[in-house]
Structures are given as C-alpha cells and as structure tokens.
Amino acid sequence: MQNLKKLSIGALVALSFAGAADANVISGRYWHVSEAISQNAVPLNVPGRTADVVFDVNSPLNFDSRAGDYTVSQFLASGGAFNVSENTAGTLASFLDSSGVGTFMEFTGFVTVTNGQTFSAAHDDGLTLTIGGQIVINAPGPTAPTVTNVTYGGPSGTFAFQLVYGECCGAPAVLEIDLPFSNNPAPEPETLALLGAGLVGFAASRRRKQ
User: Fold this and answer.
1) CA dist 81 to 47, 111, 158, 172, Å?
2) Comparing C-alpha atoms, which of 52, 127, 125, 66 is closest to residue 94?
3) Nearest of 24, 77, 71, 31 to residue 54 by alpha carbon
4) Please, what is the Cα angle at 32 between 27 and 38, to 5 degrees?
5) Please, what sign has the CA dihedral across residues 87, 91, 96, 97?
6) How large a percentage of the chain has pLDDT more than 90?
7) Does domain 24-185 have CATH number 3.40.50.720?
8) Beta partners for 5?
9) Which of 54, 78, 79, 134 is the most exposed place for a label (fewest CB within 10 A)?
C-alpha cells in the first residue's frame, strides 16, 4: 500500500513537471520564397514543400535583426533558436531577403488566452496570427518596424494557434510577440485535480480489496 501511495504521488509530480518543462517551447519552419509571397504573410501561402530550416525556440518570441544580424542564422540566433536543422544547404548563411527572394516562417502549437486580454506584436514585415481558427492579427503586408496592439475577443482557454511571418523588401527584420506559445497544451489545474482524485480513489479501492 505504501508503494502505491508513492506511485500515486510520483505520477502527479511527474505529470506536473512534464507540463512545466516544455511550457514555452515551440517549433518553427523557415522557407526562402519569392518576394511576392514574402509580401503576403497569410496561411494560404505556407509552402507545401519541406522547410529549408526547422528549429525550436522559447516563447515569447523575440527575433530582431536591427543590430545588423540579417542572415538567416543570425536572425534565428537573435531569438535564441535551438535544435536548428538546415534541410536546404546554404540557407542559414543566406540573407533573409535578397535579389527577389524573401523569408516565410510558420509557427504552430497551443496558447492559453483570456477574453479581454491585451498583448502586442512588433513586426517588420507581415504577420498573421490565428487562435482557435479565429484571425487575431491580420497584418500580412510590408511595413516598417511597427507594433500591433491587440485585445483578444475570443473565448478563454487553451487553443491551437498558427503564426505566419514574412520578411521582404530589405532590412530590418523584426518578429516579437508576448504570448506564451507552446508545442503542447500544459495540464490545466482542473485536469491535475481530477487525476489526483482518480489516483486516490484507485488507492482506496485497492485498500478495500486487500
């Protein structure tokens, strides 16, 4: 019985820490695309081919080339990207935008939001963000470095998101957004409570049988 109690507590602790460990990690995909595509950062323009570069990054996102970091490798490094894998040779050493070839990036995963919550996104150039299938930021075209302020008007909860970003028309490149994106939805407190109650009930059932 003592071992069962230890197992129950251990399972709860393990689940709690598993949710926390990856709470702010998301994965991104990067492509070089034509200038026309990079000037229209909408979900329909996500390339159907293998990404030129894939990577992981912690959120909130904070990529910024204004210090002169305008190669793909430098831009990714500015945001703390890790597990960077180059599928198309030469992409990392290339410029984000040059000679009619621009940048397209996509991030997908989950985010927890509350109705009425405010947040901001700095971007140069285009950006489209959908949460739970609802367009939350619709600014897909070229722009100088700008900040888009948003008041979220959808339901509260944890939902799938898609963020697409395009860099065109020369330096700089900026992508900063202060939302807690994640590859996996973190366990809700209610979920942990239900799991705990189930484990306690299981232990009690075992005790009665013994």
Assistant:
1) 21, 19, 24, 18
2) 52
3) 31
4) 95
5) negative
6) 74
7) no
8) none
9) 134
